[in-house]
Amino acid sequence: MPELGSSRTSILTQTSLEALSSHTSSQSLHNSQPDGARPHSSPHHHHHHQLDRFVAQVADWLERERVKKQNRRSRKVHSSKRKPTKDDSDKTDTHQQPERHRAYSIDSQSSDVSLDRLQKIIDDGMGTLGLRGIPHYSPKLGKKSQRRRSITMQRTASSDTEWHDGDVLVPSCDAVLDNSKTLGYSGGKPSVEDGTSLSSRKEKERRAWITFKNEIIKLAHTLRLKGWRRVPLDSGESMDVTRLSGALTNAVYVVSPPEGMVTRGEGNKRTPAKLLLRVYGPQADHIIDRENELSVLRRLARKRIGPRLLGTFTNGRFEQYLNAVTLTAADLRDPDTSKQIAKRMRELHDGIELLDEERDDGPKVLRNWDNWLERATRVVTYLDQKILSGDPGPIRSPADTWKQRGLVCGVEWGTFTELVNKYRRFLNDHYGGPSILREHLVFAHSDTQYGNILRVVPDDKKSPLLQPNYEHKQLVVIDFEYSAANTRGLEFANHFTEWCYNYHNEDAPFACDTRAYPTPDEQRRFIRAYVNHRPEFPHPGASTPNLTPLATPTQGPSTPGLGATSLGSTSSIKEFMLDSRAPPGGWKEEEKRREEQAESQVEALVEEARIWRVANSAFWIAWGVLQAKIPGFDGDGDADAVDGNKGEEEEAEAAEEFDYLAYAQDRAMFFLGDCVLLGLVRVEDLPEGIRGKLTFVDY
User: Fold this and answer.
1) Which of 381, 188, 372, 183 is closest to 282 using CA atoms?
2) What single-letter DSSP state applies at residue 229?
3) How high is the pLDDT of residue 405?
4) Residue 139: pLDDT above 90?
5) Nearest to residue 628, comparing CAs of 647, 648, 668, 655?
6) What gap in Å lies between CA 179 and CA 65, rounded to an integer?
7) Which helix (H) or strand (E) holds 492?
8) Alpha carbon of 545 to those of 214, 357, 541, 566, 646: distances in Å?
9) 200-222 vs 42-81: helix axis angle to the nearest 10?
10) Whether the Cβ atoms of residue 482 and residue 583 lie closer than 8 Å to each other
């Protein structure tokens, strides 16, 4: 790791890293000795813990002193800007004001020098003691929490180094960013009430945001994000952090550097770039494999797909911020935008080659169901038992509204899971076995809702993105948590179903309005744009099979794949030779044949999307169940022990921004309706109370 220029703006120095390397080597030698040859280490560990605690306390004091100094400066500036009253002018000697201000400035500069020297002492001391980072000290935290929140570098990488040995190198650290008090959209900006002062609640929120911002700066320093090491550690109050909406499994923030940084003697250095910060939701750990997600992001980075990954920490990551706007629910229905999405989807499918083990594992949508089944069973069984008992309990908060809606899946959990199993047997028969199904897999995003699609705003009027042929490349897909091997039918079914949602609807953001499902013509328009699009740079050895409807009679009734030459090769030199012999029947007949072949593929993919809609619904039903926070349920099925122990404030906090159980139940009505249409269950076999709630989309 290159040596840092400023000891004040660094958390790790070259000295500390060298000491760490030496310490690690000696520790490895110590651990390699036989047990009988090792000296008793308890005093050493006790002494090391005391040193950790001492350094943490000093670092904590140093940070508080800087915050206090910053607050004093803010109050001084505020008071100097206050317009003096007549009484003030009578009582104040204006000739003495500049002298007092100058004295304050000198004291402030002296304080800066002292704090800088203390910072250098701490940095150098860390190297001498062999510490890997500054521990976070809090008297309220136990030893376990202190160890958890200590910052330790896992790589000697920097965001300055994007590539290493042909691969993407992303810095990471072991740190937890607490955003539990900064989930609002105010950004901690002051809000004056009655024109006088801040309420105690608003002031508490403002201070929480300042702490949060300072922690972000610490992380940026630790991960060595390009340009951000010049941002002072205690400048959180002057920095803008705004939470974005639309992400259901992450809290997403836009992090902007402090205003006016460049004017403070920074020379020709550019202002640090804005960052996109993602803090993972607490419930997402049960459903998202973060290691797999990061692996996917690195694969995408090799193809320059999606925003760059800049750095990761225990419960989140930093990404490249794009000058873009998020699509809206209405944008999905716009014909031109819809065709652009289809083209970008084709480029993703053809651009990433699947590994053999990914194909062998089969569709990820089914594997996720298997992985989530055990936990989902515990949750839904608890909910079913409460409903079937006839006394689910009182409704203390919005998080308890599930008690008055009936069974979350419309039927008992055992009946629901049996329908899923029956559907999977139907899929196996439809494709003729797993070996054939594996050939229809592509690298799919699997979550193309409008909030995950951005439209980049070109800064240059001459940008190629403004040309008609490249306009679709303005769209950028983000959030690849569920990206994996899936069928095109699953990808299309997911996207079409997202037409039915408006997550910004104030009354019912969870509702699935199947009336908004794309019509047959709208589906064909989308899939036709997909089929006819030819990515300019397809991946060598395309991941998709080279099959056509005319070449699949032995494959059973499964949907055909799409290869680079499935509609006839356009790379033959004959097509560019004036004296080339025309095909039998002439060029018009050849064009007609290609059009018919394309339409045959479109119809096959429309049918495949309808079939995979059931799997897509089952996936998101389980997702909604696992995301839900259920007051009184501890996740292991033992709920009565904690029922009724929460106060009113805790119950209020349990109320969610998004009703995941209502989302799951709405989706279940769609699932059951499709099962009826596929002949997997009869309407009369379902409970009478839900028959009128089923939703049917018979196209």
Assistant:
1) 183
2) G
3) 93
4) no
5) 655
6) 23
7) helix 488-498
8) 51, 16, 10, 9, 56
9) 120
10) no
Question: In terms of Cα–Cα distance, which of 372, 376, 365, 366 is closest to 483?
Answer: 365
pLDDT given at position 285 = 67
H/E run at residue 310: strand 309-313
CB 477 within 8 A of CB 491: no
Ranges 79-93, 354-368, 548-562: which has the least confidence:
548-562
Alpha carbon 584 to its chain centroid, in Å, reads 54
Q: How sure is the predictor about 551, in pLDDT bands with cuts at 50, 70 and 90? A: very low
Q: Output the six-digit token pair for 672.
A: 């059951």
Buried b (16+ CB within 10 A) or exposed e, 114-130: ebeebbeebbebbbeeb
Q: How many Å apart are CA 162 and CA 650, to the nearest integer? A: 44
Q: How long, in residues, is the chain? A: 699
Q: What is the pLDDT of residues 619-658, one digit of tens each?
A: 999 999 998 989 888 766 554 433 444 444 444 444 456 8
Taking 60 as the threshold, does the pLDDT of residue 37 lie above it?
Answer: no
pLDDT tens string 295-325: 888 888 888 888 888 999 998 999 999 889 9
DSSP-based helix, strand, coil % in the chain, nearest 5? 50, 10, 40
Are the beta carbons of 162 and 308 closer than 8 angstroms? yes
Residue percentage of the chain with pLDDT more than 90 = 42
Please give the full DSSP string across 526-550, using - where no structure is assigned. Answer: HHHHHHH---SSPPSS-SS----GG
Burial classification of residue 415, based on how many CB atoms lie within 10 Å of its CB (0-12 exposed, 13-18 middle, 19 or more buried): middle
Burial class of 631 by CB neighbour count within 10 A (0 to 12, 13 to 18, 19+): buried
Q: Residue 354 pLDDT > 60, yes or no?
A: yes
Name the residue with higher pLDDT: 111 or 230: 230
Written as one string, the DSSP assignment of 191-224 is --BTTTB--HHHHHHHHHHHHHHHHHHHHHHHTT
Residues forming beta bridges with residue 454, ordered by sequence position: 326, 476
Residues 660 and 410: beta-carbon distance below 8 Å? no
Let me know: does 355 contact 481? Beta carbons within 8 Å.
no
> What is the sign, positive or negative, of the torsion defined by CA atoms of 287, 290, 291, 296?
positive
**Phi, psi (degrees; rounded to nearest 5) at 276:** -105, 120
d(CA 157, CA 311) in angstroms, rounded, equals: 9
Domains of the chain as residue ranges with CATH: 1-28+47-76+108-140 (no CATH), 151-262+269-321 (3.30.200.20), 328-534+599-691 (3.90.1200.10)
